[in-house]
Structures are given as C-alpha cells and as structure tokens.
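About this split. The held-out portion is used to measure sequence recovery: a designer receives only the structure tokens and must propose an amino acid at every position. Recovery is the fraction of positions where the proposal matches the reference. Here is one held-out target exactly as it appears in the evaluation file.
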C-alpha cells in the first residue's frame, strides 16, 4: 500500500473512532449525564450506563493491549469484560474511566500512525487478526455500545 493511501486509510479509521461519522460520539453520549443516572438501571435493559462505559473501557483496552504485544493475557469472556452493578460512581471514577478510554484510543492511534506497523498482515501472536481488523472492531464495538448509552439516556429522560 502506498504511503499516501495508508495515511488516508489511517485518517479515516481515526475519524471513525473519534467523530463517529454518522453516529453520535462517545463523548457526546456521556457528557452532561447527571451523576445519579450513571448507575440507574432500566427494567428492560440489562446494564446501567456505568456498566456500558466500563465495558467499552475494558474491551477497548484488551483489544489495544492485544494489538501491541504477544505478552498480553486476554481476558475471559464474558466475566472479565462486564463490571458488576454498583449503587453509585464517584466523579473521580467516572472521569478516570472516560480518560482511560481516550488514552487507549491514543495508544491505538499511535500504532496506526507508525508506518512500521502493517495494517493488513496478521499479528504474529494472533490467529489471523490484523491491526486493521482490531481497529475496525473497536470502532464497531464502541459505536454499538454508545448507541445503547443513548437509548438508556432516552429512557431515563436525560437525552436532548
């Protein structure tokens, strides 16, 4: 792949994760959420917004760590990927989770922007996964759960 084409593809991937393109961004979905609604549960939905945010954080970190190193120990599905319900989440814990999500995205973007990392070749320690596939997995996974956050906020009457 030519350098210019690679740059364009990487730019599109980063934009997809950061901006959402046709979707509301994760940041937009979580901003302005009243603290008391972070852990509110809705009878017809299996998770609170806090659990969704934490699930995004945990899964994304696992995918980025896997993409970086053969030394990574993958988590056990589903137990390690979903936090238990809690009654409250402090502002510090909420902000730390949001910050970790952004930091792991930056780690991914650094991988993508490093021309030494082939986007299409299978990672030597995987079972056919490529950096492109793992990036698209993060974009898809985060968009899916971001939509769930918005649905939860609508049902909690806390969305625009």
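Reference sequence for scoring:
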């Amino acid at each position: 792949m030519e350098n210019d084409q690679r740059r364009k593809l990487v730019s599109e991937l980063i934009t997809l994760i950061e901006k959402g393109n046709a979707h509301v961004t994760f940041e937009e979905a979580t901003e302005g959420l009243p603290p008391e609604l972070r852990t509110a549960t809705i009878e017809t939905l299996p998770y609170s917004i806090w659990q969704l945010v934490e699930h995004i954080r945990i899964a994304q970190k696992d995918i980025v760590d896997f993409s970086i190193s053969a030394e990574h120990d993958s988590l056990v599905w589903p137990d390690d990927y979903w936090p238990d319900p809690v009654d409250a989440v402090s502002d510090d814990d909420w902000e730390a989770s949001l910050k970790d999500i952004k930091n792991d995205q930056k780690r991914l973007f650094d991988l993508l922007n490093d021309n030494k990392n082939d986007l299409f070749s299978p990672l030597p320690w995987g079972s056919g996964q490529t950096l492109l596939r793992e990036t698209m997995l993060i974009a898809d996974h985060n968009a899916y759960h971001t939509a769930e956050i918005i649905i939860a906020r609508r049902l909690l009457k806390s969305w625009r």
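Annotator remark: The mean pLDDT is 96.
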